[in-house]
Design a protein that fits this description.
By secondary structure, the protein is of the alpha/beta class. 39% of the residues lie in helices and 23% in strands. Bound molecules: S-adenosylmethionine. Keywords: Methyltransferase, Transferase.
């Protein structure tokens, strides 16, 4: 995979920071509405906390798959004894053929290099009549707070030069119709596609933890910069983002962190 973010390195710390992914993931679980006996795939499962929630809903087969070997190792050690299979695989090259009633994909779609190939692999993995539920951050301004905070890296003399060489690995679409079209073009029948602005009220420190659970895997990762960056760039950039989030807080020390999120439910014919 060309743009593999280094989620392996953060496998152990991800879960305690992944507050916004977890709460959006619970909404997505309701949308997928897993029934007893169904076989379910959690696509890009991370360390498996949400996969374990699927195990509570069905006595069928539950499989988590993720491209990061570190995430799969973490998921196996946390939840492998709960009767969940964890498989290392790129989402575009799934080793499954007509094996699942439902596919769940939370907070990962923006990372996929080739979303159309992922959707084709998902259609192959589903049985006829199966369904897929997907939630991901959406819009270029996926989190206006983070986009504004990162804007300081352009302005600050310590980071300006290196940050100009950042290349975003993410693919964001601007509205729910665009996501619906992507699924329909792949061959799904789209039952629902909606976009929401989800607001989390939190302290600057919590906001920074949330930044570190996802956005930092791109912004603070040398893999996503052209050429070499100075050794101290990433620690300095983290300080500047943390200070910017601090300034976004009101007099009560809290900030309203907004995420644009898309939710899609689609069926295989
Ligand atoms: C933000 S985490 C979300 C994890 C989990 N679904 C959750 O909601 O907590 C994104 C995950 O996507 C995985 N990922 C990124 N690109 C992938 C790909 N092409 N194929 C499979 N997994 C991928 C990463 O390794 C990471 O574990």
């Amino acid at each position: 995979m060309n743009n593999m973010p280094d989620f392996s390195q953060m496998a152990a710390s991800y879960q305690q920071r992944a507050v916004v992914q977890q709460s959006a993931g619970e909404t997505l679980l309701e949308m997928l509405d897993i029934r007893p006996g169904e076989d379910v795939l959690d696509l890009a499962c991370g360390p498996g906390a949400l996969t374990a929630r699927m195990r509570e809903r069905t006595d069928g087969r539950v499989v988590g798959c993720d491209a990061a070997a570190g995430m799969i190792a973490e998921a196996r050690s946390r939840h492998g004894s709960a009767g969940i299979e964890f498989v290392a695989s790129d989402a575009a090259r799934l080793p499954f053929m007509a094996e699942f009633d439902a596919i769940y994909c939370n907070s990962a779609f923006q990372w996929f290099d080739d979303p159309a190939s992922v959707l084709t692999a998902c259609l192959d993995a589903l049985r006829a009549g199966g369904r897929m539920a997907m939630q991901a951050p959406a819009k270029k301004e996926f989190c206006p707070n983070f986009v504004a905070a990162v804007g300081d890296l352009h302005r600050h003399e310590d980071t300006r030069e290196a940050f100009a060489r950042f290349r975003s690995p993410w693919r964001f679409l601007e509205n729910a119709e665009n996501y619906a079209r992507l699924f329909a073009d792949a061959g799904f029948t789209v039952a629902e596609s909606r976009m929401e602005a989800v607001v989390n009220r939190c302290s600057a420190q919590q906001a920074m933890e949330i930044f570190l659970s996802g956005a930092a895997v791109a912004y603070l990762n040398p893999h996503h910069y052209r050429g070499d960056v100075p050794a101290d760039f990433f620690s300095r950039a983290a300080q500047i983002v943390a200070a910017a989030l601090e300034r976004q807080c009101g007099s009560d020390g809290m900030v309203e962190l907004t995420f644009h999120r898309v939710f899609v439910l689609a069926h295989k014919k």
